[in-house]
């Protein structure tokens, strides 16, 4: 028996690669479009779209075929590996694309691969917000509702009838030139007449930092017989492929190691590192110990997160081939006691009304549906202290109405009191305004937040801030013994409609 080998050929404007692993794909040599992906005899490619025009070349290096597609500001690498039904990729940029975001999209044949995310299937829907949130039957769907935090999003994909699946794998270093940090999230899937499978490298979708340029990835479009592949992908072979722009070899990287302290038990501990050129993260062990991924040399801001809340930073310098020690302690200061507290200071709305998880989704309601969805609970309500966070809405909307707290206080609970409100994002300059009984609180200044829709597109994390409002002292005397009404509404110089 003679085994079939990895092969590449060109006919006209078409480059054909046979992986000998069940995948044969074709690339347009004029523009780098992937025009065909046949896996196990089934055509998975639908509409193709690529760089418009590019200089495309290819070469065989041992058990790999490398296709290089170059424009003046972007180089795309497509790599086939012998016996592996996958397209390995990396994207080098020297400037941001003119569309203002950087993404890879696999546009897949819905007749073959048709099982995407329910909440991002917009086929047959009616747009209800912009051109990206839809009413589909009795539910709201959007491509944004397929997103997941970068730190948890290493593998996502779609399956079809029969034994077939298409998956994006973003290995441990795949996000190092992306932007936003460990808890940023972006689109993974949209179902229309085709199934779209995404890897967003950067965008302005609630973006909190500048874009990075350089080598994005590596990442993988992996085909399987249906099961989800492992995120543990061997990337060493990239170092054997000749000239790859922006590639920093593992031997030329370094580590950061240490222990995180001061975060109360019960909270996830995450470490992040960022510079102008790279970002990394890792979850700490139960004892707070951590070791970073292999990092490019340079000076980074090291951040300690309690949940998703930044509680400490320090500067750390990484050198090639060395491990630097950089333990870090939380600097968060919290009141020692409360009259009442809804939720935790952890940078996320977990536990609040309309942020709870539902059985049909792995995420909270606000992450997978629009605030207007009929499955949501009423946003405008009065909540007693005994009812707690699960009755208090995770967001307040100017055009919808305020949130109200009914608090019964004793004489010993009066005196000088401060109300602390923590917010994770805001739209159109919105900020909390508080009324306590007949006393109207101060008008806070407009916050610094990304100029982007947030909770209507499935994300709650922008710039976290805390507002301290002295609502009772010898001057205001706003709180009284017995029944008190605390109202929180939205102050903004902009007028919105409904949930904007």
TrEMBL record:
**Where in the cell is the protein located?**
Secreted
UniProt keyword list: Carbohydrate metabolism, Cell wall biogenesis/degradation, Disulfide bond, Lyase, Polysaccharide degradation, Secreted, Signal
- Cellular component GO terms held in the UniProt record: extracellular region
Q: Which reaction does it catalyse?
A: Endotype eliminative cleavage of L-alpha-rhamnopyranosyl-(1->4)-alpha-D-galactopyranosyluronic acid bonds of rhamnogalacturonan I domains in ramified hairy regions of pectin leaving L-rhamnopyranose at the reducing end and 4-deoxy-4,5-unsaturated D-galactopyranosyluronic acid at the non-reducing end
Annotated Rhamnogalacturonan lyase domain residues: 253-325, 339-491
Question: Any idea of its EC number?
Answer: 4.2.2.23
Q: Which protein is depicted?
A: rhamnogalacturonan endolyase
Organism field: Heliocybe sulcata
